[in-house]
Amino acid sequence: MVVCDTSVWIDYFNGRPGAVVDLLDELLESELILMPDIILLELLQGFRSDRDYRTAKALLAPLPKAAALTPERAARYALYFRKLRQKGITIRKTNDIVIGGFCIENRLPLLHNDRDFDLMASVLPLHIINPT
């Protein structure tokens, strides 16, 4: 099972070519994608038209879903942020800390197109998938 960050889904739905989008295509055929609720929220809120929103929601419906945040996890994810900041790394979005923390805690690899996750992986035990 793999988590695919919003950054890749955006490229996928916008038809942008690239190695991460190609890998997402392959993973979707194998049904190996887990959709944390925070990624679902980020992704669906970005659609401008109702039609595109409904289409995306229907396409994502078969994917298994998971809750990414609980009060206990929030406290642990804050520690991840603090550890990164102590190393001089500031992650730009709280959502990325939640996504990275979720992947770490569940030992799930992350497919992404966002440099903040590479920074996280340089300090934290975040497993990144690099398409080659």
Topology:
Layout: E1 2-4, H1 6-13, H2 19-30, E2 33-36, H3 37-45, H4 50-60, E3 65-66, H5 71-86, H6 94-106, E4 110-111, H7 115-121, E5 128-129
What is the gist of this entry?
By secondary structure, the protein is α/β, with parallel strands linked by helices. The chain is 58% helix and 10% strand. The chain has helices at residues 6-13, 19-30, 37-45, 50-60, 71-86, 94-106, 115-121, and strands spanning 2-4, 33-36, 65-66, 110-111, 128-129.
Features:
alpha/beta; 5-stranded parallel β-sheet; single chain; 132 residues; Rossmann fold
What does this structure look like?
This protein has a single domain, classed as 5'-nuclease (Rossmann fold, 3-Layer(aba) Sandwich). It starts with a strand and ends with a strand. A five-stranded parallel sheet has the order 3-2-1-4-5. The mean pLDDT is 95. It is built from seven helices and five strands. Helix content is 58%, strand content 10%. It is α/β, with parallel strands linked by helices. Strand 4, helix 7 and strand 5 form a beta-alpha-beta unit. Helix 1 packs across helix 2 and helix 5 crosses helix 6.
Helix content: 55-70%
**End-to-end distance:** 19 Å
Q: How many beta-strand segments?
A: 5
Q: What is the H/E order?
A: EHHEHHEHHEHE
How much is the average pLDDT? Answer: 95
Which CATH-level-2 architecture?
Answer: 3-Layer(aba) Sandwich
What's the CATH class, please?
A: Alpha Beta
Beta content: 5-15%
From the spread of the alpha carbons, the general shape counts as globular
Major beta sheet, strand line-up: 3-2-1-4-5
Q: What integer value in Å does the Rg equal?
A: 15 Å
How would you characterize the largest beta sheet? Answer: 5 strands, parallel
Global structural class:
alpha/beta
The CATH topology label is Rossmann fold
Low-confidence stretches: none
How many domains?
1
